[in-house]
């Protein structure tokens, strides 16, 4: 089982462009620039452009260890260190999420998790956006997206790993293998990688807290240790929310178009798996029934709120809940195969097969695209060249004038960003 998880982790990072064996997705233009700056620029530093100083305000945990290696050996070493780090981290979460007493069950869950996605191909065909590259079929409704496992691994490994890590902790809680304090602290630490993971974990933490109280499974350490960690992480929280009011956010307007697309979205992204995970079978393996219900409720409610220029709240805060549904679907698939009832196998198989087409289209988009290598620009220059980037950089940079004095360093090195060069990408690695 460990070998299968290792191969799956290696495939998810490598096909996604890490190491540049395959072409990288567009988001790596920005991500490479962040790694480039954290390696090449002296710490701490601020950008200077448009007559202002700007602080890099983003969850940087994914970059720190590779950047430390890069400062010692060079940027190329940092790129390979990031690849190795992310592969090892995905292996660890897959090993926890897919573990069971039966190797066959574990392999079925692993396969279901890796190909998991909603029926985006149907949505794209309904809205006439087509399936051929470079069309992103997961944006068929242009309002919100529940990303497939492959999309998350290929495009946003920092968010994916944080969300999957939280899901793994929730699974260990459901199995009685960790205490509530460890669950709370692990979820809090995930904010280093992605604050959306902690947001997505909130309903599950509330449920686990109620269960801990009801079962009298709370000791003083379960309260004291998370409080101490919370105090230690307070500067990080202040850092991540600095000047965050500039990030677009708010509830979705209840227009007819929204209601129509919401109904279609839920019908194609969630209902097939509700049918596959028919209630009597939920809880036979993996997550508890109550955790599954919390995941479904979260996924039903998330589209009503928007945060970020690309509605990152729906795409990224949904990762823990999607992982719960994916793992549960894997257990349902194994149960259906074991019972050898044709209608059950057909139901689960249809849900996973149509969903799995999203990952195949994503792979097709990658392998048919040009391999541009790694970004040689700083973050601001790379942002100007990314055709997908929004005009606002508010979710990466904070105006230094709006940052509290505790987070502003008088000794910060100034990095005056220059004009955008002709091409940031370099085919050499």
Overview of the molecule:
There is one protein chain. The chain is α+β, with helices and mostly antiparallel strands. It has one domain (2-416). It has 18 helices and 8 strands. The strands form 3 sheets. Strands 6-2-1-7 form a 4-stranded mixed beta sheet, with no helix packed on it. Strand 1 (45-49) and strand 2 form a beta hairpin. It starts with a helix and ends with a strand. The model has no long low-confidence stretch (mean pLDDT 84).
State the gist of this model.
The protein has 429 residues and is α+β, with helices and mostly antiparallel strands.
Global structural class: alpha+beta
Number of strands: 8
Percent of residues in beta strands: 5-15%
Cross-sheet strand order for the largest sheet: 6-2-1-7
Distance from N terminus to C terminus (CA atoms, Å) equals: 33 Å
Shape label: globular
Percent range for helical residues? 55-70%
Mean pLDDT: 84
In total, the number of domains comes to: 1
Number of helical regions: 18
Strand and helix order = HHEEHHHHHHHHHEHHHEHHHEHEEE
Measured on Cα atoms, how large is the radius of gyration? 22 Å
Q: Outline the low-pLDDT stretches.
A: none
Largest sheet: 4 strands, mixed
Topology, element by element:
Blueprint (H helix, E strand, L loop, with lengths): L1 H14 L11 H14 L4 E5 L2 E5 L4 H13 L1 H23 L5 H13 L4 H7 L22 H7 L1 H18 L5 H10 L5 H21 L4 H22 L7 E3 L4 H14 L1 H6 L12 H13 L3 E3 L4 H6 L1 H21 L2 H26 L6 E2 L3 H7 L11 E3 L13 E4 L8 E2 L3
Parallel strand pairs: 1-7
Antiparallel strand pairs: 1-2, 2-6, 3-4, 5-8
Helix pairs in contact: 1-4, 2-3, 2-18, 3-4, 4-8, 5-16, 7-8, 8-9, 8-10, 8-16, 9-10, 9-11, 10-14, 14-16, 16-17
């Amino acid at each position: 089982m460990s070998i299968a998880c290792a191969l799956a982790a290696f495939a998810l990072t490598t096909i996604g462009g890490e190491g540049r064996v395959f072409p990288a997705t567009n988001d790596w233009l920005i991500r490479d620039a962040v790694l480039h700056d954290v390696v090449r620029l002296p710490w701490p530093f601020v950008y200077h452009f448009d007559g202002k100083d700007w602080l890099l305000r983003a969850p940087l945990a994914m970059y720190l260890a590779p950047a430390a290696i890069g400062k010692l050996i060079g940027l190329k070493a940092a790129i390979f260190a990031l690849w190795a780090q992310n592969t090892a981290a995905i292996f660890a979460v897959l090993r926890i999420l897919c573990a069971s007493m039966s190797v066959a069950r574990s392999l079925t869950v692993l396969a279901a998790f890796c190909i998991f996605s909603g029926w985006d191909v149907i949505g794209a065909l309904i809205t006439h956006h087509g399936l051929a590259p470079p069309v992103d079929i997961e944006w068929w409704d242009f309002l919100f997206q529940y990303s497939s496992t492959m999309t998350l691994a290929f495009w946003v490994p920092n968010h994916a790993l944080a969300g999957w890590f939280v899901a793994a902790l929730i699974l260990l809680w459901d199995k009685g293998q960790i205490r509530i304090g460890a669950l709370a602290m692990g979820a809090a630490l995930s904010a280093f990688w992605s604050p959306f993971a902690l947001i997505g974990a909130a309903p599950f933490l509330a449920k686990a807290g109620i269960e801990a109280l009801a079962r009298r499974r709370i000791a003083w350490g379960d309260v004291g240790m998370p409080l101490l960690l919370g105090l230690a992480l307070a500067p990080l929280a202040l850092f991540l929310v600095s000047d965050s009011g500039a990030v677009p956010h708010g509830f979705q307007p209840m227009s007819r178009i929204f209601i129509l697309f919401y109904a279609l979205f839920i019908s194609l992204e969630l209902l097939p798996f509700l049918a596959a995970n028919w209630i009597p079978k939920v809880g036979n393996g993996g997550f508890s029934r109550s955790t599954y219900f919390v995941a479904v409720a979260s996924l039903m409610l998330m589209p009503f709120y928007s945060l970020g220029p690309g509605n990152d709240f729906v795409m990224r805060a949904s990762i823990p809940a999607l992982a719960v549904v994916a793992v549960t679907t894997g257990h349902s698939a194994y149960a259906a195969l074991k019972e050898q009832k044709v209608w059950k196998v057909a139901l689960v198989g249809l849900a996973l097969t149509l969903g799995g087409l999203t990952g195949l289209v994503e792979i097709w988009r990658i392998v048919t695209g040009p391999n541009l290598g790694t970004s040689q620009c700083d973050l601001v220059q790379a942002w100007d060249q990314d055709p997908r980037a929004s005009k606002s950089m508010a979710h990466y940079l904070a105006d230094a004038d709006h940052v509290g004095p505790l987070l502003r360093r008088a000794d910060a090195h100034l990095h005056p960003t220059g004009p955008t060069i002709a091409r940031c990408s370099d085919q050499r690695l």
